[in-house]
Amino acid sequence: MGENRFGVSIGVVGGGAACVSLVHYLVDKGVPGSFDVTVFEANRPVGPGLAYQQDTDILRMNRMARTMSVLAEDPEHFWKWLSSHPYYAPLYEGTDDYLPRSLFGAYLQDVFEQTRRVGLKKSISVEVVKKEVIHLYKRDRYRLMTRDGETHEFDIVILCIGHPSSIDHFNLRGNDRYVHHPYPLSPAISVIFRNDRVAVLGSSLTAVDVAIALQKQGHAGEIHLLSRTGELPSVRSEFAPCQLRYLTREAMVGILQKRGVIRLRDIIRLFRRELRPYGEDWRDVLFPHSRKRSPVEWLKRELDAARNKRRWQSVLAAANEIIEEFWLYLDEADKNRFMRDYHRLFMARRNPMPVRNAVKIHQMMQQRQLTVKGGLKHMDALSDGTFFAQFDGGEIKRYDWVINATGSSRNLELASCSGLLLSLLHNGYARRHAHGGIDVDFQTGAVVDQQGRADLRLRAVGHITCGTYYYTGSLELIAKRAEQMAAEIVDLLARSGKIAELV
To answer: What is the helix (H) or strand (E) element at residue 399, kind and residue range?
Structure first.
């Protein structure tokens, strides 16, 4: 353990990708011997988190390897790691494909361990406590309590707790044939009989994963992806780098100078201008396709279109640079309208599935093994252990199993909150954000309490901040936020006087 000459301690709760990026930058920017870091992660090694844990290789990343990294300044860091790795490099030589998610998890573990080694050289200890944090109490310092009643005190606490649990929309938990957490998929679906009829709640990327994993396991029964909209994710086309010309920070500033707020129609107008030179229609992005054609017809059209570069996908990817700021200044009524009418569609377009997955899904639909069905209204368990689902118009379907693939909730329902989140909310140290997660200060990520005060020594990064930043599913944006936060924390410690003489 390194020598911490000033007794400054930083606690990081959660050990996924956001944690790996943040701890890297804390160690990288920290003054030698100025603080120690303790990471709390109960469920798995630090790095993979829920998204990239060990699981079936059927689960693939939704972005190409060259665009994945936890280092904001090096977008190809994962690809470089893979290309030089003595074990993995020969296995994946010459490919730039959508690689297994567990491979990215191995990369995250490796980056974290490398950070620990660098920390030792700088007398910055990075320790791991494999326990769940369930409570935070604030006096002069922060006291974290783990599930076994043990307490740890810190000067600064950073929440990297990732995704809250999915919501049990139909109160099905407790039924033997209901799977509330689909990941890891291999054990979750291994108990399903080959000919059982399976209902998968949701039709997003998680639902696609479940369907493909079932087929790979040899499942022969019907699989239904059930949701309100029946909208599948788009299919990822060949990526073409894009420089935004109209949907820019300069355009945003100009609008704010005129009337002090951004309207949804302003963003749509700028988006339309970006697409106009390519002859693409903005309505193909923000209007539901299920109203025009069947899911199998729509997916065939998507596969055909994916053979070409589609600029709207490039524009949406390039918008990562400014999406947080546009969201910050968007009129509150328009935020509510967007979340109500467009959010699900936007996420289905912004997070497209790889072609290989789309081909498998289309084949399963053509073979009538897979059905994508919208209009879900209600579901409940029957006394024989099976389930029924009711759809628009009163139609009833029966299922042997139900798998919840709706994904993490943005809104902090009590049933989906961890013990720590409930502790923060009940003690008034945090408050819910109207559009998801907990409220944080936009510039610093400092958690905002019930009185509206931002606490610079209690911060959050990742999905739990989705109400403030909107699009927190991008590792690129998380890494940038983590780098900025680490720099601010190091500066805060310097200004506090504890390490000022070293700076």
So the answer is: strand 396-399
Least confident range of 118-127, 288-297, 476-485: 288-297
Per-residue pLDDT at 96: 59
Query: Over the chain, what is the mean pLDDT?
Result: 90
Residue whose structure tokens are 């890297």: 24
- The answer to whether the CB of 298 falls within 8 A of the CB of 232 is yes
Is the Cβ–Cβ distance between 216 and 369 less than 8 Å? no
Q: What fold does the segment set 178-233+354-404 form as a domain?
A: FAD/NAD(P)-binding domain (3.50.50)
Nearest C-alpha neighbor of 202 from the set 211, 212, 213, 191 = 211
Which secondary structure element, helix H or strand E, spans residue 414, and what is its range?
none
Instruction: Tell me whether residue 441 is exposed, middle or buried, using C-beta atoms within 10 angstroms of its C-beta: 0 to 12, 13 to 18, 19 or more.
Output: middle
Q: What is the dihedral of CA 438, 439, 441, 442, to 10 degrees?
A: 80
As a whole number of angstroms, the distance between CA 396 and CA 410 comes to 29
pLDDT at 500 over 60: no
d(CA 180, CA 415): 12
* R_g (Cα) of the chain, nearest Å: 23
Half-sphere exposure at residue 294, Cβ-oriented, CA atoms within 13 angstroms: 8
Cβ distance 91 to 100 under 8 Å? Answer: no
How far is residue 318 from each of residues 53, 230, 477, measured CA to CA in Å?
A: 28, 27, 12
Q: Torsion angle of alpha carbons 150, 153, 157, 160, nearest 10°?
A: -20
The 10 Å CB-count burial string (b at 16+, else e) for 478-494 is bbbbbbbbbebbbeebb
- Residue 447 dihedral angles phi and psi, to the nearest 5°: -70, 135
**Burial (0-12, 13-18, 19+ Cβ within 10 Å), 259:** exposed
Q: Which two tokens stand for residue 231?
A: 């909208």
Helix extents (H) in 319-432: 323-329, 332-341, 343-350, 355-366, 419-426
> Token match 């300069």: residue?
250
Q: Cα separation of 203 and 351, whole Å?
A: 12
What is the per-residue pLDDT across 421-458, written as a single tens digit (0 to 9) for each?
999 999 999 999 999 999 999 999 999 999 999 999 99
DSSP summary character for residue 382: -
Evaluate if pTM is beyond 0.85. yes
pLDDT of residue 408: 76
Start and end residues for every CATH 3.50.50.60 domain found in the chain: 9-165+411-502, 178-233+354-404
Token reading at 233: 């994710």
The structural architecture, per CATH, of the domain 9-165+411-502 is 3-Layer(bba) Sandwich (3.50)
The predicted structure's pLDDT at residue 167 = 85
What digits encode the pLDDT tens for the residues 208-228? 999 999 999 999 999 999 998
Phi, psi of 41 (to 5 degrees): -145, 115
Q: Is 469 exposed, middle or buried (0-12, 13-18, 19+ CB in 10 A)?
A: buried
- Assess contact for 51 and 192: CB atoms under 8 A: no
Contact (Cβ atoms closer than 8 angstroms) between residue 349 and residue 288: no
